[in-house]
Protein 1
Amino acid sequence: MIEIDGSIGGGQILRTALSLSALTQKTFKIINIRGKRENAGLQHQHLTAVNSISKICNAQIKGNELHSKELEFTPNNVTPGSYKFDIGTAGSTILVLQTLLPPLIFAKEKSTLEITGGTANPLAPPALDIKEVFLWHLEKIGIDVKLEIEKEGFYPKGGGEIKVIINTCKEIKELNLLEHHKGNYEETKIIAVCSKELKEREVAKRMIKGFKLNFPIQNKILSEELYAETLSPGCYIHANYNYEDHKIGMSVLGEKSKKAEDIGKECALKLLEEMKTGASTDHFTADQLLIYMAIKGSGKLKVSQITDHMKTNIQIIEKFLDVKFNIKDNVIECIK
């Protein structure tokens, strides 16, 4: 049995362990779940991830209850199919999806998922970020996943919904993003998403204006304003910078204390910060790609920074898969 001390990080440790446990059919036990966090133990979103992946692999579980700090997970064979999961709060639908993707991608048949909860959460990338950037990278390595945002869901009521089609993949290609500057610049895409009650104040337009005023590249910029019916008011802006063979994304969630223009400005400056380092992709996307590099057993990418989140993620991956990650000068390489 693989043993994990959950106090070294947050929910990502649990999600990675659940994914790889279902994929490799290895049992694990985790103690001190989110032990150093103020609200330690399993929260609603984590519990949904546990119970949802348990459902797709008919796992035996001990400790799957709210606020539990210890969990033992014994998987069985993964069963593809159509599933619906409801977090019940504004907890991130995307973090639940991240948990389910690896085992379902390599299942015998395609699967469809409907997940209800938050689509824009301060502690996770918005669903749009995953659709625009992360899934683009998966497509590059031969993985076909389609995501549609049926409803946007903001804190505190949530009520957002994503629908996902996961096609099976027999073998993935190597992810090597070091030679990424050979292609031509294609476009910069900006999408501003707001609740309908913010339309009168032109919040989406103002966020986009704030972005453009602080982004030095002015050619081939595509922008889109989206207003949605939501249970709780909210807004965010997403932008991605595209070459033929690499993509860097950034999203910033709105806050009551921030002007719309400042939200757009923050997004532009953060995207520029990633771009100036020569990174292959943004560090949020890179963190999510590590597990797929490990499944392949090889791959390279350059990031703007090596985060503690990445380091703990790598520790968990190396417990389940016979791979080693080497890190030098912000280049992450996976080898067998």
Protein 2
Amino acid sequence: MSIPTPTTSREADLSADFKEAMAHMCAPVAVVTTMDGDRPHGTTVSAVMSLSVEPLLIAVAMATTSESLSAITRTGTFGVNVLGAQQQSVATRFAIKGDDKFAGTLWHRHDSIPRLDGSAIWLSCRVDHILPGGDHVILVGGVTGVDTDPIAAPLTYHARRFGTHTPHDTP
């Protein structure tokens, strides 16, 4: 799939403004994983959301060029590891291309899918739909397993920086 390039200065300005606006949206940081044969695959994503409770569905946006997406397409299963607040180095490691992302990362197989130790939330999923979304696809997964660490704060990304959520005091 090719990415359309802006053809006018107004479109270029809008594209830059859009990117800046999206940088100011707070997003959870997750690593999407799958196991293709004996090889684990994973990539960092920040566009992940609950889609439906009946049936249980989650949506994840992934770049069309992602090796992990290709592996997920082959296997039909994936995991969503919403990272804990202290896992910034894991997020950074899985955000770059390369074969050695799992080196130095503690993980184990859960439902035959790589689960990263220390994640605040774990979801195991089967591929339900893959929808086009420009230079990304929207991966819709049927949730087959859930585990949450109730005291773990999730890692977030806002204004091009990692952080976490701090709740307001309520009276």
Protein 3
Amino acid sequence: LVLQQVMVVGVLAIGQSLIILTAGIDLSCGMVMALGGVVMTKFAVNYGMDPYAAILCGLAVTTGFGLINGLLVTRIKLPPFIVTLGTLNIAFAITQIYSESQTITNLPSVMTALGETFNLGSTEVSLGTVTMLFLYALAWFVLRETAPGRHLYAVGNNPEAARLTGINVDRVLITVYALAGLFYGIAALLSVARTGVGDPNAGQTENLDAITAVVLGGTSLFGGRGIILGSLVGAVIVGVFRNGLTLMGVASVYQTLITGILVILAVAADQMSRKGVR
């Protein structure tokens, strides 16, 4: 049940993990996800596009945003924080303008298929949850067992040393940001499947939750250290935490406040552990 509730944040956290492992950060993930969801649903509902083609268009938009982020970080040498803060606002504005701040309903069944469930013993499991777990397994394998995965860690740990060993640092970073955008698009599809609508206001809390999940999962904001499966654990922790606060009647604004404090504490602990290692 918890995994079904955190599948959107969980997939966002995969993309966020890849970027944070390179010592970057993406503040735009939630808003890019919202834009992808609006694009794919509006193309299918308002323009009558084939649902599969509409989904691909949404994925292309989110991947494109990731690619732009990567190019700005590598080619113009802008800090990831500034770049993604800018694209956060751009994605939000485009989403609101394009959707006219209206929720898109009456979606084709293809777009809600990942929200369907099946019985696994006495537990109902959604196809979206299975998708999330598969993506984590795939990301874990690539990062642990392949050369591109090792290159990513090397770039996050010391980009200059990585460059001296022959790794194309810019290509690694551009690929990472583009892949993160693709994961945001998949998260958009999961969000659409779970809610049954294209919501222009989606992603406003997921942005912070995804970063929190990555940090709580043990990935260092300073790059080069972390295990992708830790982000899944972090997403579950965030989900359980928010559910607990909701059951206690804590307003969402205070939940966001407490989540922000958790991020600061986790980063502070990581910084102190790094100093201890040195």
